[in-house]
Design a protein that fits this description.
Its EC number is 3.6.1.23. This protein has a single domain (about 10-130), classed as Distorted Sandwich (Deoxyuridine 5'-Triphosphate Nucleotidohydrolase, Chain A), CATH 2.70.40. It has two helices and ten strands, in the order βαββββαβββββ. By secondary structure, the protein is mainly beta. The strands form three sheets. The chain has a four-stranded antiparallel beta sheet with strand order 1-4-8-6. It is globular, with a radius of gyration of 19 Å. Helix content is about 5%, strand content about 35%. It has helices spanning about 20, 75-85; strands at about 10-15, 35-40, 45, 55-65, 70-75, 85, 90-95, 100-110, 115-120, 125-130.
Length: about 160
Amino acid sequence: MIQAVPELAVDLRLLDPRLAGWGFPRWGSDGAAGLDLHACLDAPLTLPPQGAAVLIPAGFALAIRDPAWCALVYPRSGLGHRDGLVLGNGVGVIDADYTGPLMISAWNRNPTGPALVVTPGDRIAQLVFTRVARPAFAIVDTLEASGRGAGGFGSTGVR
């Protein structure tokens, strides 16, 4: 059985009554990090290859309240890799003080091929709760040199 984090209490308001029948809220397995998010659509939605991203209601709102926490919306691994269904915004961030409806920005990343069809109730994304670090910034004129220096993209190689 999945154990809740005792120091994090999140209020969850179901906006779509079908969610309870679809088994929400639930994690796909005892070791899953992400809470499955369902497409709360009234009819099937077709996502053409490389079409515009579409906002799909997740059917609920939540209140995290604790600014030491946030939630992140990620695509489901298999759908992204196998079918090309990814998030139009990469990763969605749900701040602790946001209490509006959750939306999933869905996009068909495939360059060609068949359109993707999302049907009502499909589990299309996942929600992961994580801690937030807010560092104390020190404005400086220079940075101490490191072994890597200013080397950016690809500077450490692949092997």
